């Protein structure tokens, strides 16, 4: 799976083709926006949100400043757009895996945690931008993060009732927050690639409050789960990508 930041925005293969055959404007805009997502994520991950500038983002994306302002009203708007795009991709994959799972809630939790940690470990720039640097991106970004965390509540709809007199909704939010905190600590320490190591402890942490504490993965099927793959480009862009040749004058 590729999230924003997974490709070099200045890769010549991603540039808009020049020549007598005119490229549709919607393709130009979509390509620019996709490259700006990658440029922003990489710039923010490397320099931090506070130190990243629009000029830096445009340079990393291979897109002009006028083109940047066709898409976004500033750095904060671009950050929010990239964050929303990337987290929507991630949640879509988790939703699909959860809906397709037939092994019970505990098994579904294990698989979704495995996918979440695997995807973030494979996209360390996006992980740093979306999990750590969002703290510096302002109140709107932090509200967007709260909205994201609330979206994870859907994965607890089939969880057993917790033993003991506790408020179920508050317990679920506490568990989600704890998982997020553990992931944050690993990424902020520069160890995003080691996130999959957290799977046993996080699976235990998530299931224990619901009476299913177990640090051993469920034994289902005869082989490993295949890797999750999701194109980072819209399908119509992926189909046309082979015809792109130029890079730096997309304004």
From TrEMBL:
GO terms for molecular function: DNA-binding transcription factor activity; transcription cis-regulatory region binding. Residues 30-90 form the HTH tetR-type domain. Residues 53-72 bind DNA. It comes from the Bacteria. Keywords: DNA-binding. InterPro entries: Homeodomain-like_sf (IPR009057), HTH-type_TetR-like_transc_reg (IPR050109), HTH_TetR (IPR001647). This is TetR/AcrR family transcriptional regulator.
């Amino acid at each position: 799976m590729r999230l924003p930041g997974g490709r070099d925005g200045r890769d010549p293969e991603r540039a808009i083709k020049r020549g007598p055959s005119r490229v549709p404007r919607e393709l130009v805009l979509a390509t620019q926006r996709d490259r700006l997502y990658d440029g922003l994520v990489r710039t923010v991950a490397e320099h931090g949100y506070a130190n990243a500038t629009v000029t830096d983002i445009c340079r990393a994306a291979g897109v002009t400043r006028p083109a940047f302002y066709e898409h976004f009203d500033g750095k904060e708007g671009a950050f929010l757009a990239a964050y929303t795009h990337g987290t929507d991709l991630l949640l879509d994959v988790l939703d699909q895996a959860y809906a397709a799972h037939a092994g019970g809630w505990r098994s579904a939790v294990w698989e979704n945690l495995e996918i979440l940690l695997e995807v973030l470990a494979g996209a360390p720039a996006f992980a740093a931008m979306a999990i750590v640097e969002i703290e510096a991106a302002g109140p709107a970004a932090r509200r967007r993060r709260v909205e994201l965390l609330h979206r994870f509540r859907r994965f607890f709809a089939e969880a057993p009732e917790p033993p003991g007199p506790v408020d179920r909704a508050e317990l679920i939010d506490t568990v989600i927050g704890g998982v997020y905190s553990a992931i944050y600590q690993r990424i902020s320490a520069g160890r995003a690639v080691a996130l999959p190591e957290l799977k046993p402890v996080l699976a235990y942490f998530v299931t224990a409050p619901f009476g299913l504490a177990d640090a051993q993965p469920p034994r289902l099927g005869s082989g490993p789960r295949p890797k999750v793959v999701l194109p980072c480009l819209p399908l119509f862009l992926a189909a046309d990508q082979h015809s792109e040749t130029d890079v730096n004058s997309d304004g």
